[in-house]
Amino acid sequence: QNLEAVTDYMLKKQEETGVSLLWATQNLFSNPRYMNGGMTNPDLHVFCYAAAQIQKVMDVNNKLGGLNHVFWGGREGYQSLLNTQIKKECDHM
Q: How would you write the chain as a 3-class SS string?
């Protein structure tokens, strides 16, 4: 409900100013629920929440005429250090 009001206001301001939305993205990493990833999370409830969040952002992006959508998976988590290659990650830093 609040998001609808905010996006209605943003759309009005876009029409008044001519400023357009270039892209949108969703935050699937700062909330503790995503400590093991959003779309890679082994908990089905967290995965579904992330999917719903992505869908909402895509809907908002479409409503505001966004030109692009960024699926940034740069901080997808993992449940244990056994699920990653520490040396490879350090080499990428």
A: CHHHHHHHHHHHHHHHHCCCCCEEECCCCCCHHHCCCCCCCCCHHHHHHHHHHHHHHHHHHHHCCCCEEECCCCCCCCCCHHHCCHHHHHHCC
Residues 6+ apart with CB under 8 A from 1: none
| Residues 24-61 pLDDT 10s | 999 888 888 988 888 888 899 999 999 999 999 999 99
* Integer angstrom CA distances of residue 12 from 4, 5, 44, 49: 12, 11, 37, 29
> What is the rounded CA–CA span in Å between residue 71 and residue 82?
25
